[in-house]
């Protein structure tokens, strides 16, 4: 068991939350098989594990961002960071057992990787705040960043060097392409239309789904990009879904034409790009309140769709009966910012608390929570599962922390 923590910095966090953090910290050795906490200058609104793994050092790459809320635009950036969870170190040998402490210890000759999250590549964000970022599944070197200025910026990781080489300063090199239906960028504070969510098509390479604060949904195609045409204004599809704002869009993993959309008016629909009227089915608005913030298809069974709202409710739906009652319902306890299905365990779902700072892991087969991560002291912005380690997670929060953690198997196996 390895626990790596950074000391808590002074802040305006309430005494109750600090006391909760203290209780959590005292029990970390019992709660986790691995825990690594990191503090940065700014919070990240997004996190995603890259699909690759360096097995020689057990090094994972994670996509993160910095969110300054326009206070310091020069600090707005997308980061590719690395972390080793040290699984490659073989300690489980009688030669490594310390009888005094009753623990396995590494050999003195063991070379340890860095204990903390290391920024490998920094990509300066061209304009606005980075609300979300995600890599192209078919080519993770291409990264899309959703901006508060209404643009989606596409970056090529290979053109941004590493921390050992340089950080990009030349504005001409900042992005590969930009999707914005307004054409040339014109800051219009009177009509803000932020990009709230983005999702790459898993079946049709280069097709990007996006949603906006004015309720629009747009689909973009990277195939329209040329070196002479980096600013792309033509969409594959564009329509208004929810006049109060479309908070989340998500492609069905197994289909190139079907996607889910969820909005601030508590509406959620399944849409088909092949249909003229688009909508296939929708939920009854009574099943959610205070806006639906996130929706995700189950990776193993695309007929199952999870949705979460600003009141903390999570609904699991059979999309073939979307206009009926949900398959199951459970309560996080406060507003939810993000949900993610486990890519290795088909019934396991994580919910991120926008207000309570808690990440809860649920077994949706019985709607019971099996683990609560209480290490953040402000709202959690995003969570991500690791594809190589079934229980390894990343979570980012408004207290400027990034946590990489794994619940103790003794807890999740007994749940």
TrEMBL record:
SMART domains (UniProt xref): WD40 (SM00320)
Keyword set includes Kinase: yes
This protein's UniProt keywords: Chromatin regulator, Kinase, Nucleus, Repeat, Transferase, WD repeat
A GO term for molecular function: kinase activity
Pfam families xrefs: CAF1C_H4-bd (PF12265), WD40 (PF00400)
InterPro entries with a match to the protein in the record: Histone-bd_RBBP4-like_N (IPR022052), WD40/YVTN_repeat-like_dom_sf (IPR015943), WD40_repeat_CS (IPR019775), WD40_repeat_dom_sf (IPR036322), WD40_rpt (IPR001680), WD_repeat_RBAP46/RBAP48/MSI1 (IPR050459)
Residues forming coiled coils: none
GO biological process: chromatin organization
First and last residues of every WD repeat: 285-320, 329-372
Residues in Histone-binding protein RBBP4-like N-terminal domain copies: 19-84
The protein's name: Similar to Saccharomyces cerevisiae YBR195C MSI1 Subunit of chromatin assembly factor I (CAF- 1), negative regulator of the RAS/cAMP pathway via sequestration of Npr1p kinase
Organism annotation: Maudiozyma barnettii
